[in-house]
Amino acid sequence: MNDQKEKIIIGFDMDGVIVNNTQPKIRLAKALGFKLLPEQTPSEIISKHLPLLVLRELQRNLYDNIETALTTPLMRGARGVLTAVKKSGFPYFLISRRRIPHIAQGILKKHGLWPYFFDEDNAFFVLEPEDKDVKAAQLGVTHYIDDEVGVISKLNSVKCRFLFDQFNIFSHQPHYTKVTSWAEVKKRLFG
């Protein structure tokens, strides 16, 4: 392993990166009387398509209801890249804004990611985007993958920031590298 690779410490967001909330959001919106297209489901876009009260109800059901949360599938390709990261020996962490950690852990368990990839030692749950930066700085994270531009812009301590944009709807910005799939994440991390 060369010196550059030895310095890589990877941080992952959970929702919209490791797990794919697209179909659960579409189903929940439909149950609440609204139709969403997949490209309308990212966190920073959905608020433009749903009234605030409806959005809050959707989020409550998606994130705080264990039965609904467990319907959330993995993002295609996530397991393979996580396997490569684990085999590489690079330190890696989950830093999520999930308010109820045991629900997040339940989703990860369902998909065989907890405790194989993530556990109490490398998974952290914070409240605000700024808290992600504080935790990333404490852990020495050099590369972080998140699906929200607003969060990416707060990660001042992280040298290499990746915006996971599965629908390719966000514009390129100088403070992050855009990736649209886990295959792209793997290429960026391993060449």
Structure, described:
With 191 residues, the chain is α/β, with parallel strands linked by helices. The chain has 2 domains: 135 residues, HAD superfamily/HAD-like (Rossmann fold, 3-Layer(aba) Sandwich); 48 residues, no CATH class. 42% of the residues lie in helices and 12% in strands. It is built from 10 helices and 6 strands. Strands 3-2-1-4-5-6 form a 6-stranded parallel β-sheet, sandwiched between helices. Helix 2 packs across helix 4 and helix 6 packs parallel to helix 10. It is globular. The N terminus is likely disordered.
Detail the topology: elements first, then pairings.
Layout: H1 3-6, E1 10-12, H2 22-31, H3 43-46, H4 52-64, H5 66-69, H6 78-88, E2 92-96, H7 101-110, E3 123-125, H8 129-139, E4 143-146, H9 149-152, E5 160-164, E6 177-179, H10 182-190
Parallel strand pairs: 1-2, 1-4, 2-3, 4-5, 5-6
Helix pairs in contact: 2-4, 6-10
Rough outline:
globular
User: How many domains in all?
Assistant: 2
| Secondary structure: helix percent | 40-55%
How many separate helices? 10
Structural class: alpha/beta
Query: Numbering strands along the chain, what is their spatial order in the largest sheet?
Result: 3-2-1-4-5-6
Using the coordinates shown, work out and report the CATH topology of the largest domain.
Rossmann fold
User: What is the alpha-carbon Rg in Å?
Assistant: 16 Å
Query: What fraction strand?
Result: 5-15%
Name of the CATH architecture of the largest domain: 3-Layer(aba) Sandwich
